[in-house]
Amino acid sequence: MTAQTAYPESTLHVKTGWGWVLVAGILFVIVGVLAVLQPLITSLAVGIYLGASFIVAGAFAVASGVANFKQKGAWLYIVLGILAMIAGGYLAMLPLNAAVSLVWAIGIWMIVAGAFELYTASQIRLHRAWLIFVGLVDIALGAVLMWIDPISAIEVLAWMVGISFVMRGIGSIVFSRELRKLSLL
Questions:
Q1: Which end of the chain is more exposed for a tag (fewer CB within 10 A), N or C?
Q2: Each residue of 162-178: pLDDT tens digit?
């Protein structure tokens, strides 16, 4: 039995859906560019998304606590879930505050990450100079984000979201080309 009779011609071609990946990549690039061009709308969308995420996560935490109420510490899930839903409601009602808070939270995270990178550099020899450099850059960028005014924070957030979407789009476009090659085999 030959490969031709064992596998009909229609099954030799791989269906990769490369066209859909290409369309998604193009849309990601478009949304990324729009995010940078419209920082206020981008920040509103991010704030609403953040609020909705807190509400959904809180609801799941409450449901988990109620479902496991007889377990030790289940009440903590319920309390934290309720707090998350309250915070989410606040963030969703005031999305610009949420967006600015997110930028400041990223600043705190970068400062802490930079401190850990510096600590790691003090403990190891491999790539020590690079870790020190990255740690100092993270701390500097984090400090800028921490002391940035709210209007600039909204613009920074829009740039972060926009660049992320553009990079994701470019990656999807490149990936679609590779998938297309597979489908032509």
A1: N
A2: 999 999 999 999 999 98
Q: Is residue 127 part of a domain?
A: yes
b/e map 166-178, b = 16+ CB within 10 Å: bebbeebbebbee
Nearest C-alpha neighbor of 121 from the set 109, 139, 104: 139
Q: Range of 45's domain? A: 17-184
Q: What type of residue sits at position 148?
A: I
9 lies in some domain:
no
Tell me, yes or no, whether 6 lies in a domain: no
pLDDT single digits (tens) 55-112? 999 999 999 999 998 888 889 999 999 999 999 999 999 999 888 888 898 889 999 9
Token pair belonging to 97: 């505050």
Total domains in the fold of the chain: 1
Cβ atoms of residues 51 and 91 within 8 Å: yes
**Does the residue 45 lie in any domain?**
yes
**List of residues 6+ apart from 88 with CB closer than 8 A:** 50, 51, 52, 53, 54, 55, 56, 57, 58
